[in-house]
Amino acid sequence: MAVSALVLTPSGAQAQSTVRVAVVNPAKVFNDAAETQALKKKFEEDQKRIQAEGTGKVEELKRLKAGRDEFRQGTDQWKAANDKLIRATADFKVWQQSEQIRAEWNQKDQMRSMFDKITQTVAKVAQRDGIDLVIADIGAKLPEDLDGVNMAQLNDAILKKTVLFVSAKQGLDITAAVQLQLDADYKSGGPPAAMVNPVAPK
């Protein structure tokens, strides 16, 4: 059961309409979602693959350096081997940077995609349950130990509190319902929840 509020019509007439409001914690949905867990597992596997590939490249650099050092420094053979080592070292640094940029971009893309799916799923659950407004509960708990934070950090934490009270009434917090629907859509392999067309302001 979502919380209800009485809203007067713009004309100020006695007619009243009921607005149903609920809250959702998008961070909890994101962290606990089945798709997020799958993405984390894939990310860890990719990191292991990249680490193994990087180890192989480092070993190759060591081999090239050892081969160069077999020649007397300053000789044509040493210079040729050194040039090869320099090129391989430069290629390795470019590879490292490319992999880092690619990994960061993929993480940002996946995070944005997950947020879009969560938003769409919130709309789907809200429409299904007759909820008119969903408020995001994004504020973390205020620190119990004030010695561990400075004034700026405490002020920031307070200002980020978007929800100050949530009743224990069933259905008011739809976080679990949203995650359940999100996981169901993901496991079914189907498209994400349909995006709801916003109502144009009057």
List the helices and strands and how they pair.
Layout (H helix, E strand, L loop, with lengths): L2 E6 L7 E9 L1 H7 L1 H35 L7 H53 L4 E4 L14 H9 L15 H14 L14
Parallel strand pairs: 2-3
Antiparallel strand pairs: 1-2
Helix pairs in contact: 1-5, 2-3, 3-5
How would you describe the shape?
Answer: elongated
Helix run count:
5
Radius of gyration: 28 Å
Q: Tell me the total number of β-strands.
A: 3
Domain module tally: 1
- Secondary-structure element order, as H and E? EEHHHEHH
Q: Estimate the mean pLDDT confidence.
A: 85
Secondary-structure content class: mainly alpha
| Biggest sheet character | 3 strands, mixed
Oligomer: single chain
Runs with pLDDT <50, length 5+? Answer: 1-9, 191-202
What strand order characterises the main sheet?
1-2-3
Report the portion of residues in β strands.
5-15%
Helix content: 55-70%
End-to-end C-alpha gap: 29 Å
What features would you describe in this structure?
With 202 residues, the chain is mainly alpha-helical. It has one domain. Helices cover 58% and strands 9% of the residues. The chain is built from five helices and three strands, in the order E-E-H-H-H-E-H-H. It has a three-stranded mixed β-sheet with strand order 1-2-3, covered by helices on one side. Strand 1 and strand 2 form a beta hairpin. The radius of gyration is 28 Å and the shape is elongated. This is OmpH family outer membrane protein. One of its GO terms (molecular function) is unfolded protein binding.
